Amino acid sequence: MHLPQRSGHRQASCSQPQDDVDVNVRNGREPPRAHQQGCRKMKLLHVVGARPNFPKLAPVHRAGQAAGLSQIVVHTGQHYDDALSDGFFRDLGIVPPDVNLAVGSDTHAVQTARIMERIEPVLLETRPDWVVVYGDVNSTMAAAVVASKLGIRVAHVEAGLRSFDRTMPEEINRIVTDRLANLMLTPSRDADSQLRAEGEPDDEIEFVGNVMIDSLIYALPAARATGFRDKMGVNGSAVVVTLHRPSNVDDPERIRILASVLSEIALEREVIFPAHPRTQRRLEDAGLRMDRVRMLEPVGYLEMLDLVENAFAVITDSGGLQEETTALGIPCLTIRPNTERPITITEGTNRLVPNPADILEELRQVRRPAETPRPEGWDGHAGERVIAALVRHR
Length: 394
Fold this sequence. Notes:
globular, six-stranded parallel sheet, 43% helix, Rossmann fold, alpha/beta, 17 helices
């Protein structure tokens, strides 16, 4: 049910006139400064917690700095090791988090409860104008619930995406966060339509484009400079694999089929598999070996981007890689029956493969596109539009 009223009140705006804001955004210039004479700086508190969040935070944080806003970054510690977290801050030019809640891994309920318990005193102490949450991880939903109960407004970056599969924990997080958010910042026009169909008011929905692609465009030169593809010997013929979703790696029969198919593909093409620690554990627990597959520990954002840009194709269950491959023109086989990012199919290079036994045949039909047109809003300026929207709705 749509919530007719949301907590939090609008404060008097210090921003420049609306027409000037819109002109800046259209022209791709830096967003308006919100700290004119006699005006308190608008304060943003960004909440991140897992690998997919960091490329979404980076362009928004940079745009907030350019606009002269006060910003606090809270890392919940949902994932926290150098390859999965710290490296992103370094690679994407973000200062280290101001706060680390260090919640660690656990069941969804325990992890969510820890985040809620530990973020409340941070919000009470800092009292930001906006709590900005990203994507669909547990940290996103938990922070939105606590902020809403404290009367602090919530902005959801990447709002309106739906897989229509409530067996996915991320889908629950998306729905709850959008119901509570005061401002829903969408990456695609279909997300706008979805939110309207769910009863959200037009004045709380803003299309801003895809912040993930901002990070990709920003990071590509540095990614190419890593030389990682050369180190791996990737020359456009290798298949890059990432798999981590419970629906794929927690089902013993499904992960057995996946291991068998990847080994078969490796007879025809080199297969490079930077494996999430969770996936590595599941393979070990099942006693599965893929001797012909080149297994790697998790790699940094820049190294992964360099690999993907030079791959023949990508096999994944990651939402972010569906978008990155579309932007780069790399064929992507998504091992899921659905996607919350349908634009990567209708306008991109993504193809759903629900049955892992079909992967090899699908891969044999793959052709790289001659051109790589990007969807609307995938232009490197989404972060600036996010900041402009937050200032406008202050």
